[in-house]
Specification:
single chain, about 500 residues, alpha/beta, 18 helices, about 60% helix, globular
């Protein structure tokens, strides 16, 4: 088997698995409806267990978040020997964002509790938007250039070979450019902590103090990524309900995952040792999902000796809001599909595990492939199985099946299971209210009511702007129609 054929088979696997289950579910609903009814009951029981399990860890992480933010981390950090030798290197890749967005991001970085003279910032723009970037970079450098230990500007050239234009290739170029500056300064790589943020990211005032403390206290920081909690609430009050629900869903998934850090890779904003970043050759320039791929690069480079350490401190970003509701939904769909394109990690892992043989233990290899494959499969299929396939055999079953006790009792069983599962929805709704930013003055008081009522849209949202984009991404990979990097269009009414 040629390398090309082998890799294509790995790419086909996730989509084939998803489509196989969906097609089989529809076919059996007509041919063997009782089989599907049995499956749906068992699946719903399993999912109720998952909901309760999810809710437990969600509350655990939420409490840890509250406890972490109550601590003065800069005071604790000053009590640690050698803390002042640690420096931060912050990458801010941008494309077409307004100068007010960049200014707000840098203002929060500079005004945090960690001293700005221990921060190095890289504003990484694109030559495809040269005129816009040049104007923004000039204004930002004049305002913030002297506030940090170092402030660098890089511009990623357009149309370089062997690249997927986007955030990953921008970071790859910026990383190599900045490495030359670091080498000229003679700074030890192990004392530099790298953070990669979207340019609309607003860091918590204690972010760098807490990160530095966790990095220095960790027994093996070089082989560790540090993952904060991502909140999409910079423009939460302005965004449509569907965007708010999906944004909270992403945050809750991350809160759940941080309580079980062995099961996740890095996502969106993340931090790591500059030594590890250099060892893996920086972010890959030919992938879309560079934020999670960097973890897998390090996992392979260090033969499985790489982990994620949770940071119970938030960073806030924008939802993909636009001026109109319909464009906002389209932006959300494209963002979810881009995140769903993380399914490209499945063939990547299978390919490298095949080539590496026994360099990484069978247990670690299985865990990584399982988490990637099962996560993407569940994302694409669970909502459809629960909300569509759970009813389909009841609609199409013949008279003989309808006379069975199982058929007649199934709607009541499913109803009770859904009532129990509502417990998780109530917890999510309650916690979402505690994570809301302070409402701007122009927001009317009754808007809070909609923050509660919006959760009735969850079933529709899970199908149309979650499951379907995931299936879309897997289908593209299965057919070899590779997706490029889609820049999420975001608008914020105020900085």
């Amino acid at each position: 088997m040629s390398d090309y054929v082998r890799y294509r088979l790995y790419e086909i696997l996730p989509g084939a698995l998803t489509w196989g289950v969906l097609v089989l579910g529809v076919a059996l609903s007509f041919a063997k409806p009782l089989w599907v009814i049995y499956f749906i009951i068992v699946f719903d029981i399993y999912w109720v267990y998952r909901v309760l399990y999810f809710s437990l860890f969600l509350v655990v992480s939420w409490r840890r978040l509250r406890q972490t933010l109550a601590v003065d981390w800069m005071a604790r950090l000053r009590a640690m020997a050698g803390w002042s030798q640690a420096y931060h290197l912050v990458f801010l890749p941008m494309y077409n964002e307004d100068v007010t967005v960049v200014r707000a991001t840098l203002r929060h970085i500079a005004d945090g509790t960690y001293p700005a003279d221990h921060l190095m910032v890289v504003l990484a723009g694109e030559a495809r938007k040269h005129e816009h970037f040049a104007a923004v970079a000039a204004a930002i450098q004049q305002e913030f250039g002297q506030r940090f230990f170092r402030f660098w500007v890089t511009e990623h050239p357009a149309d370089l070979s062997d690249e997927v234009p986007g955030k990953g290739s921008n970071l790859y170029y910026a990383g190599h450019a900045v490495k030359r500056h670091i080498d000229a300064l003679g700074m030890p790589y192990e004392r530099i902590i790298v953070s990669s943020f979207d340019v609309d990211t607003i860091v918590h005032p204690q972010y760098f103090a807490h990160l530095t403390h966790e990095y220095l206290a960790h027994p093996d920081p070089t082989h560790t990524s540090f993952q904060p909690i991502a909140l999409y609430n910079n423009n939460m009050w302005e965004s449509p309900s569907v965007l708010r629900i999906m944004s909270f869903g992403t945050t809750f998934w991350l809160l759940f995952a941080l309580a079980r850090p062995d099961t996740i890779t890095t996502f969106s904003s993340h931090s790591m040792s500059f030594k590890a970043l250099v060892d893996v050759g920086f972010w890959q320039k030919d992938v879309v999902s560079e934020d999670s791929r960097i973890f897998l690069q390090a996992f392979l480079r260090y033969r499985g000796r790489y982990r994620v350490h949770p940071l119970y401190v938030p960073v806030s970003m924008d939802t993909v809001r636009d001026d109109t509701w319909w464009v906002s939904i389209k932006n959300l769909y494209k963002q979810q599909r881009r995140w769903g394109w993380g399914v490209e990690h499945v063939p990547y892992l299978l390919w490298h595990f095949h080539r590496m043989g026994d360099a990484i233990s069978w247990r670690l290899r299985f865990k990584q492939v399982w988490y990637q494959l099962e996560g993407k499969f569940s994302w694409a299929t669970t909502a459809l199985i629960l909300l569509v396939f759970g009813r389909l055999p009841l609609w199409v079953a013949g008279d003989a099946v309808r006379r069975t006790a199982l058929f007649q009792n199934t709607p009541h069983i499913l109803e009770w299971l859904m009532v129990i599962a509502m417990f998780g929805l109530v917890i999510s709704m309650t916690l979402s209210l505690t994570l809301l930013p302070r409402a701007p003055q122009h927001v009317k008081k009754h808007t809070m009511v909609f923050m509660v009522l919006q959760w009735v849209l969850l079933p529709v949202s899970l199908i149309f702007v979650s499951a379907i984009p995931a299936i879309d991404a897997q289908t593209h990979l299965m057919l070899g129609r590779y997706l490029g990097f889609n820049v999420s269009q975001k608008k914020r009414a105020y900085a």
